[in-house]
């Protein structure tokens, strides 16, 4: 159980944590609240159910992980479990939504995005899963 909180004192994990937290703040609030041009929770859950066959309870768990993962990453509290949840969430998006559109982000408006962006987010989450919260994290304080 101690491995969940164990982390290195590296500042690089702080940079990763904060970058991923900011990204998922904007992403999750689009999904849940419809901010910044998003569909909101009902719209996303219905889209995921109808288009990708993701059951609503699984989609809701994904939205929960996305939103509360932001706070976990900002504080560095339970970094590894939330990084795992975010990695699974973004890997699902990459495979179900982006994989068939190649590697690159859309080059023209209305064009579908490839895996470039989602792969970067997935790898950031995996780095935090492996390395933990780093310096200035609640995990580091608790693991001492």
**Outline, from the CA principal axes?**
globular
What is the C-alpha radius of gyration, as a whole number of Å? 16 Å
Q: Count up the domains.
A: 1
- Spell the H/E element sequence: HHHHHH
Summing up helix and strand content along with how strands pair, one would put the structural category as mainly alpha
Low-confidence stretches: none
Distance between the termini: 14 Å
- Mean pLDDT, all residues: 94
Measured as a percent range, the helix fraction is 55-70%
What's the number of helices? 6
Percentage beta strand: under 5%
Q: Care to count the β-strands?
A: 0
Q: Please outline the major beta sheet.
A: none
Structure, explained:
This protein has 144 residues and is an all-alpha fold. It has one domain (8-143). It is 67% helix and 0% strand. It is built from 6 helices and no strands. The chain has helices spanning 12-33, 40-52, 56-75, 79-98, 116-131, 138-143. Helix 2 packs across helix 3. The protein is globular. The mean pLDDT is 94.
Key attributes of the depicted protein:
single chain, 144 residues, mainly alpha, 67% helix, 0% strand, globular
């Amino acid at each position: 159980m101690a491995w969940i909180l164990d982390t290195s004192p590296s500042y690089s994990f702080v940079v990763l944590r904060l970058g991923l937290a900011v990204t998922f703040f904007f992403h999750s609030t689009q999904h849940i609240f419809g901010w910044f041009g998003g569909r909101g929770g009902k719209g996303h859950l219905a889209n995921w159910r109808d288009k990708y066959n993701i059951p609503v309870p699984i989609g809701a768990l994904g939205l929960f992980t996305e939103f509360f993962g932001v706070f976990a990453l900002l504080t560095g509290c339970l970094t590894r479990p939330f990084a795992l949840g975010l990695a699974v969430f973004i890997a699902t998006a990459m495979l179900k939504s982006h994989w068939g559109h190649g590697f690159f982000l859309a080059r023209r408006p209305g064009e579908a995005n490839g895996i470039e962006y989602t792969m970067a987010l997935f790898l950031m989450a995996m780095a935090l899963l492996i390395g933990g919260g780093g310096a200035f994290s609640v995990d580091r304080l608790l693991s001492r």
